[in-house]
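FIELD: query
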Amino acid sequence: MRKSIIIGNWKLNGNQNMVNELILKIRQELDQIIVSCTVVIAPPMVYLERAAHALVGSNILLAAQNVDINTIGAFTGETSVQMLKDIGVKYIIIGHSERRTLHKENDILIAKKFIAVKEMGLIPILCIGETEAQRKSGSTYIVCAHQLDSILKILGTSDIFTDVVIAYEPVWAIGTGKSATPKQAQDIHKFIRNHIAQYNIKAAQEILIQYGGSVNSINAAELFMQPDIDGALVGNASLKADTFALIVKSCK
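FIELD: result
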């Protein structure tokens, strides 16, 4: 049976005090409920080590929001997978829509990052999803399939979907307050699982596919009731400890 996962993506938010206070509050909130899913937070890169110290003694795991493809050398300003692993990071977000659009990351670069994360024994959180224009043109399934196939094409093996989290994030819903309906999200999650099954049935059954598109404490429970939705990649709502805890509580 798959164990759902809730990941709080803090994006470009925070300072030293906020990191300490928010983690403390999240820990206090989660101590008051039964947590039946894996809980992960992804603070900004500069605060990851501080977050790691603040998480000691808790069951909350640490994720990075990005990573470079290189391991060592003259790559000013970059951070390697080894460095992230060294400070306690277990998950790394790959191919987030904001990286694809704002930083022009293409499928080839995302696949190389995916490889780097897997080779170091960490877990990639591979983000896929369509823009509003692609949705309106009826291309949602085509876009999602292409983004998955681009990983398979470069790596050449279906085993790469073992120990991976897929985050379906409809780009048109991120940070807008809009959200796919539970049925819409379920249909696409099922499509993603079935698409992976064409290559590796066992991996498709075991892979965690989470939803990421303006998830909040109101819509979370109904989303998590869907058979192919294994949690959520949470943005703004993860910056409020009580709200984040309610989302975690909704995850059975």
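FIELD: remark
The domain at 5-250 is CATH 3.20.20.70 (TIM Barrel).
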